[in-house]
Amino acid sequence: MAALALVPSTSVALVVVRATSAGFANGSAAAAGIVLGDLVFVFLAVLGMAALAEVLGNFFLILRYLAGGYLIWFGVSLMRSSASLQLENSERSVSNLSSSFFSGLFLTLGDVKAIFFYASLFPAFVDLATIGALDIVHIAVITIVAVGGVKLGYAYFARGLVSSVRNPRAERALKVTAGSLMVGAGSYLIAKP
Predict the structure, then answer these.
(1) Cα distance between the two ends of the chain
(2) Where are the domains of the chain?
(3) Is 179 in contact with 70 (CB distance < 8 Å)?
(4) Which of 41, 121, 126, 164 is least crowded, fewest Cβ atoms below 10 Å from its Cβ?
(5) Each residue of 135-178: pLDDT tens digit?
(6) Burial of 12 (0-12, 13-18, 19+ CB in 10 A)
(7) Which pTM value belongs to this model?
(8) HSE, side-chain direction, 13 A CA sphere, residue 183
(9) How far apart are CA 75 and CA 4, in angstroms?
């Protein structure tokens, strides 16, 4: 799980962008949303996700489109915002934290790669027929530590990058780059089959 969480993806891009544009707390909130989404998939896998995905196939498709649209909107907003990052104020904003959290959650719930992993590959590593309540707790803890730890690491290092940038032109370039990544991630999420 940690190796898969390390692979650059839309969830990594979201954590990095939230940490660079709004501070470590927002990157952490996005990571928490991603972890919750993964936990939802863990529990769905245990309960028979393949059958559920067939029944709710269009729901997952709608979530993917909503997540992609939100990422595009957020990226464009980031590119159009002023050059000053104002990290101290934005880190404390409850609305920013909840926005970051729900971005991570919806991105994960709409991620076909995550659905594929938990519906197809996860059962290859875990014998779902013999799993007990304690096993589910262990899997949840492993998910939280592996996925959450990696995403928090990305947020920490991304926040450190911003702290080292004090030039307004460099800040602007960083925002445009981060916004472009978000637009690209959102577009990819909408366009992928």
Answers:
(1) 24
(2) 9-191
(3) no
(4) 164
(5) 889 999 999 999 999 999 999 988 777 666 556 676 677 677 77
(6) buried
(7) 0.69
(8) 13
(9) 24
